[in-house]
Amino acid sequence: MQPMRNEKPGPPNFPGRPNASPFSAASQTTMPFSPSPPVVGAESPGYRSGPPARFNSPSVPPPPSSGSSSDIGPYHRFPTQQIPSVQPVVPPRGPPSGQVMLPQQVLSFGGQQVLPPPTPFHPQSQTPSVPVGPPSQSANLLPSSRSAPQYPSESSFHAPNPTMQTSSHGYPYKQANLVTQAPPLQSYPFVAHQRGYAPSPPQPASMGLNSREHMQHPGAGPPVGALQNLVEDFHSLSVGSVPGSIDPGINSNTLPRPLDGDVEPKSFSEMYPFNCHPRYLRLTTNAIPNAQSLLSRWHLPLGAVVHPLAEALDGGEVPTVNFGPLGIVRCRRCRTYVNPYVIFTDGGRKWRCNVCSLLNEVPGGYFANLDASGKRIDVDQRPELTKGTVEFVAPTEYMVRPPMPPTYFFLIDVSLPAVKSGMIEIVAETFKSCLDELPGFPRTQIGFLTFDSTLHFYNLKSSLTQPQMMVVSDLDDIFLPLPDDLLVNLSESRTVVDAFLDSLPSMFQDNVNVESAFGPALQAACLVMSQLGGKLLIFQTTLPSLGVGRLRLRGDDLRIYGTDKEHELRKPEDPFYKQMAADLTKFQIGVNVYAFSDKYTDIASLGTLAKYTGGQVYHYPGFEGAIHKEKLRYELSRDLTRETAWEAVLRIRCGKGVRFTNYHGHFMLRSADLMALPAVDCDKAFAMQLSLEDTLLTTQTVYFQVALLYTSSSGERRIRVHTAAAPVVSDLGEMYRQADTGATISLLSRIAIETTLSQKLEDACRFIQLRIVKALREYRNLYAVQHRLGGRMIYPDSLRFLPLYGLALCKSIALRGGHIDAQLDERCAAGYTMMTLSSSKLLKLLYPSLIRIDEYLVKTSANNDGSRNNFKMLPLSAASLDPSGLYIYDNGVCFIIWFGRMLSSDLAIDLIGVDLSGFPNLSRVNLCERDNEVSRKLMGILKRFRENNSSSYQLCHLLRQGEHPREGSLLLSNLVEDRIVGTSGYIEWILQIHQQVQQSS
Predict the structure, then answer these.
(1) Would you tell me how many other CB atoms lie within 10 Å of the CB of residue 72?
(2) Share of residues in the chain with pLDDT > 70 (%)
(3) Which long-range contacts (CB under 8 A, 24 or more apart) does 111-117 make?
């Protein structure tokens, strides 16, 4: 096979087996955010040989920098006690915030006032009350901006002690923490001027306190004169209590919660109207620091989340641009693609690159005159000059071989456990139902290999009437018994393929072999696919036990948990799998792993194949065909039929003085900044960290451009380009105000998961908490003195959900507890999944939706169509669960339908056909549509919820209140605001953060 090239073809250079771990772990222990050494590169068309590739791990140093780089390159191996309520007081008029303030943090226990002791990561049983309230909002001036278009680039409340109580119905719940919140102050958007921003004049805002609360605090200072005209953009929590107060407090539900889900940023949309949609590119802050000294005070990760093939909203399509023989217009120095932020000069004969500022000649076939405003007269007919996202059709110089056909090869475990589970039958049926929908007709290639203790190859040649099986029992020296007809054209061999899929379930129905020669089978699959590349789908049920790559049981020694060796369990045991991942990537083979078992199968090792080839891990613990059939059918069908970008590479460019360093996700890092993606789809997102190369940035705007070069299923070589811009600021407060919680949590979660590969789980959780504490401490230092905030905890409105998401991340399966909290395979599979999710899907997984639906089901309303917008999202706490209600918990991966103990028996019978008074085993009850209106409504709701999240199928788990232990494992342990054994509740978490912020403020 001739490799694809950049500028000239050359033999690929593959290093030895890299030492990267399955989540691309960082090797550093004290500074997980420290960036990799700087690397500089530019891109040129075509494929070429480059520096040795590496695994996507920050611990692997980058290759030497070079003067040029490309989006395309060689196939390298890559490397019940009440605490007295709070009586808030208000300072005199004058200070701009009108804050409720205390001279110091005061806690009241038994009528005595004491200072709180330092709180460790795991909270003590006694917790003080935490009042909440917002001050005012401010806007700082940003640096002035060029007038010409430019390119890329969260009251006071009383909180009872949150100890566990028992309701009158016997259901354990956490007593609600009561909160009041003043109305949020009006925010004042920036007004874009030719030379910068100017804040709107401030308006007075009432804190909305009761008259009895309007007490002047003796410690309040005089007005801060110059600050009266500022509008502050932060919210706050007031920590303390006033002894003897009988104020009953206010509802704790006013604590900040993302009950509306993820909110994509819209910052500077007027100033940068040509930016690509945030679903494609999100920065952790939409204000880039202008200096290293400013960046060092940020503390949160600075970087981006890229989702290059995200599905367009409302069925829209990305505009396609074909320059034809002219060739794609790019900067001749930095290789940036022409975009809306370039500036045309000299009557339209030249254009200035927005990334490197080089003046380029306009090709004759691309010339157009400029109008009086300096714009091209044909700008409205040029999508590349008006849209932040376009797709270029790549000319022939971007390839040295014909584009590969879509190729699917299936590696199927047919041992006894696989047969008994029903997996083989479901997989065969699903394959057959999808054959007409596979992309790339009539070029699509297909092949099969089954294995137990031997390997079974299948001749699917079109001239045959039935497939021929060839068995290879030699596992030490793998060879192909029939090299030419193991991969066949689907349209030509359709009859033979159909016959094979029809006979596959019965072919091994009497198989009693329990061994698994997975490693040799993997080697054979690589040999079959090496000439074309494609997508390898692995269906594995048992622990590999024969031949190369055999694995042993790990994690059964509970003494290892909590020790310094614990992280070894989450890393691949045998380097064979990393080496195979490098080989597969070299041959442009992407791997998706489907793992089925109720026993240990070492997902940490198997998942490596998906991690380094841009693939995905699908985990079905305790798989039973009768229960999991619909989920497997849906997810496998989507995998087979969704549009895939084949033999792809991705690079993100940015302006002078900044660069991307560490990369996180599923890919192989071919060079310093080139990500190899043999098969990537619309469900994969990537994250990377940003650093400053220069001590001081002199530009006013930083531009970013994401370029994904790939082969479409139709056989075209294409380049999808996303362009965005962000202002450079000198004010730390502006960085906080423009922060994006979704992108921040996405990047933070990936770094934390990688940390678990070199450290203990609790170290990763401490790391998350430390970053949040440092960020809020730095933000507090900006305002605490001048506004005399006393014991208040303040934070910007843009990061009001950050503490809660941080808590949810620490309680996620990937990070929480030890052996008793999650099975090892389940934990590793969760980590692999989180490394690939987009920001919105990750936030949904961390803080799922909890809605009550019984009221909707029993009432008729012509205006209620059952869409998510018609339901109120509830806090994730047991206090939200009414024993007389019916609830749906949706995390984007599964549905949990919770039946309250006092729910109407008629309603339950209508829904599931079973009387709950008989204490049925709901795990064996199949939820299906029944012949009544209530059941049809419920199934309609579930259908619409699934349509809103097409990437996976939410399997339904039915659960009855008090059903142990299922209720605890499925639902109660996932109510992230509640305090469970060994973890903090929301209030305790906030207190810990606040106290740690105050200790060094």
Answers:
(1) 31
(2) 72
(3) 111/243, 111/244, 112/243, 113/243, 116/991, 116/995
Cα gap 84→128, rounded to integer Å: 9
Q: Assess contact for 779 and 232: CB atoms under 8 A.
A: no
Q: What is the DSSP string of 450-494?
A: EESSSEEEEE--TT-SS-EEEEE---SS---SSTTSSSEETTTSH
| SS3 label, residue 416 | helix
What gap in Å lies between CA 637 and CA 873, rounded to an integer? 31
Residue 116 is predicted with a pLDDT of 38
Strands 350-352 and 359-361: antiparallel
**Which residues have C-beta within 8 Å of that of residue 316, sequence separation ≥ 6?**
none
Residue 252 pLDDT = 64
Domain layout of the chain by residue ranges: 234-263+740-847+986-1000, 272-311+644-729, 324-386, 407-559+574-642, 848-862+870-975
How many Å separate Cα 65 from the centre of its chain? 30
SS3 424: helix
Contact indicator for 92, 220 with CB cutoff of 8 Å: yes
- Give the containing element (helix H, strand E) for 593: strand 589-597
CATH superfamily of 272-311+644-729: beta-sandwich domain of Sec23/24 (2.60.40.1670)
Between 949 and 401, the higher pLDDT residue:
949
The yes or no reply on domain 848-862+870-975 and CATH 3.40.20.10 is yes
- What would the CATH number be for the domain defined by 407-559+574-642? 3.40.50.410
Topology adopted by domain 234-263+740-847+986-1000: Four Helix Bundle (Hemerythrin (Met), subunit A) (1.20.120)
As a whole-number percent, the residues of the chain with pLDDT over 90 amount to 60
What's the fold here for domain 324-386? Answer: SH3 type barrels. (2.30.30)
* pLDDT at residue 886, rounded to an integer: 96
pLDDT at site 253? 62
**At residue 374, what are phi and psi to the nearest 5 degrees?**
90, 10
Residues paired with residue 679 on neighbouring β-strands, in sequence order: 646
In DSSP notation, 623-684 reads --HHHHHHHHHHHHHHHHHS-EEEEEEEEEEE-TTEEEEEEESSSEE-SSS-EEEEEEETT-
CA separation, residue 81 to residues 2, 504, 916 (Å) = 74, 64, 35
Question: CB 170: neighbour CB atoms within 10 A?
Answer: 10
Q: Which of 315-319, 871-875, 995-999 has the highest mean pLDDT?
A: 871-875
Rounding to the nearest 10 degrees, give the CA dihedral for residues 874, 878, 880, 886. 90
Three-state secondary structure call for residue 580: helix
| pLDDT tens column, 622-675 | 999 989 999 999 999 999 999 899 999 999 999 989 999 999 999 999 988 999
Beta strands in 866-970 (DSSP E): 886-890, 894-899, 955-960
Give the Cα separation of 527 and 520 in Å (integer): 11
Dihedral, 591, 595, 599, 602 alpha carbons, nearest 10: 20
Amino acid 367 reads: F
Decide if 69 contacts 336 (C-beta within 8 A). no
Residues sharing a CB contact under 8 Å with residue 243, sequence separation 6 or more, in sequence order: 84, 108, 111, 112, 113
Pairing of strands 196-199, 190-193: antiparallel
